[in-house]
Specification:
The structure is a homodimer. The first copy, chain A, is of the alpha/beta class. Chain A has seven helices and nine strands. In chain A, strand 5 and strand 6 form a beta hairpin.
C-alpha cells in the first residue's frame, strides 16, 4: 500500500502559518493535521485535542523519555512536541499528514525523517514581517525584538527546507502549498502502480 | 536575474501529450513552448514555426555537426531535434520553457541538463495505452505492436524522470503539470529574494 507523506509547514512567529494551514486543510479534506502536545495553558477559544493536546510537564517528560516525540521544543518557558505514533499510523494507511511547527522542530524532523517535505513560510519581505510582529498591539517591544532575532536565524536555516512559500495573501500561499502537495504526489516513486508496463500485456 | 526552468514533458506515442501541452500553455501564458526542428513532411493543418520548423536533412546534419541540438532522434525515418540556443536565451531572461519530446530525447536532456525538470506522461494503465493506440483506425497492426514494444521500454525508463503525470483526462493531467510548475517555482533555491533577512533590517 502507498505510504502517506509527512509535510512540515514552518516559519517564523508572526508569518501567519496557522491561517494558511486552516485554508489548506479546508481545500484538502484528505489531508490530516497533526495535533501537537503542549504544557502551556489553554487560551480562550482553544479546544483540547484540536489546537493542541494540553498536558502536564510530567506527562511531557514521560513522552520525551520514551522517545515518543518526533520533535520537541521549549518556547517561552513552555514545552511543545509532536507524538510520533499517531503520525506513523496515518502514514501507513496512505494518509498525508501536515505538521505546523516551529523551525527548531522542523529541523529535528529533517534529521529524523529525511523523506519529509519541509516547507518554509516567509513573509513577502523581512521588513513586512517586522511590521506584522510590531502591529500586534499586545506584544511588548522587547518580545518583538527577540522574535525578530529568532526569525533572522530561522531565515538562515531556510536553505535546509525543500520549498519556500511566500505568505503575501492567504489564498495565494495556500495555493502554493496545495500545488506542492499535488506535485509531490506526482513524484515518480509514488506512481509505481501506473508504470506496470509489461505486467499488463 | 532569476533563471527560467527547463521543463520536459515526454511519454509514449498515443498517450496524448500534445493535447495536454496545449491546455497547459493555455493556462500558463508566461510559459514558452520550444518548437522542434524536423525533416519530416508537413502534414495538413500544420504550420511551419508553430508545430515544428520543417527543415531539410542537410540543414539538420549541419545543426548536429555544430552541436547545436539539445537532443535529437530519428523516428520512422525522420529526424527530430531541439535547437539549444533559443532555449538558452529564454531561460536567461527568466522564462520557463516547455519541451514536448520523445522519451529518447528526454533522457538526452537529463544527461546534458541535470537541472531540467522531467515529467513522464503515462496512461491510466498500460492496457488503456494499448487500447488508445489500437483505436487509431489508420494505424497498421504491425505499427501498433512496434509502438507498444517501444512504450514498454519507455515505461522502464520512467524512474529517471522527476515526476509522472497520469493522463486520465486532459484537465486533470494539465492540472498536475501546472502544480509541478508552481511547486518547482517554490523550490528554496528559487526564493533567495524573500530570504534576505538581515539585509532588510
Amino acid at each position: 500500500m502507498k505510504q502517506g507523506r509527512l509535510i512540515v509547514l514552518s516559519g517564523p512567529s508572526g508569518v501567519g502559518k496557522s491561517t494558511v494551514v486552516a485554508e489548506v486543510m479546508r481545500r484538502r479534506p484528505n489531508l490530516r493535521f497533526s495535533v501537537s502536545v503542549t504544557t502551556r495553558a489553554m487560551r480562550p477559544g482553544e479546544v483540547d485535542g484540536e489546537n493542541y493536546y494540553f498536558i502536564t510537564r510530567e506527562r511531557f517528560d514521560e513522552l520525551l523519555a520514551r522517545n515518543a516525540l518526533l520533535e520537541h521544543a521549549e518556547y517561552v518557558g513552555n514545552c511543545y512536541g509532536t507524538p510520533e505514533q499517531p503520525i506513523n499510523e496515518m502514514l501507513s494507511k496512505g494518509i498525508d499528514v501536515l505538521l505546523d511547527i516551529e523551525p527548531c522542530g522542523a529541523l529535528q524532523v529533517r534529521e529524523r525523517r529525511p523523506d519529509a517535505i519541509l516547507i518554509f513560510m516567509a513573509a513577502p519581505s523581512f521588513a513586512e514581517l517586522e511590521r506584522r510582529l510590531s502591529a500586534r498591539g499586545d506584544t511588548p517591544e522587547q518580545v518583538v525584538r527577540e522574535r525578530l532575532e529568532r526569525a533572522s536565524w530561522e531565515y538562515e536555516q531556510a536553505a535546509r527546507y525543500d520549498y519556500v512559500v511566500v505568505n503575501d495573501e492567504v489564498a495565494h500561499a495556500a495555493g502554493e502549498v496545495e500545488a506542492i502537495l499535488v506535485a509531490e504526489g506526482c513524484r515518480t516513486a509514488f506512481r509505481g502502480e501506473v508504470l506496470q508496463a509489461t505486467a499488463a500485456r
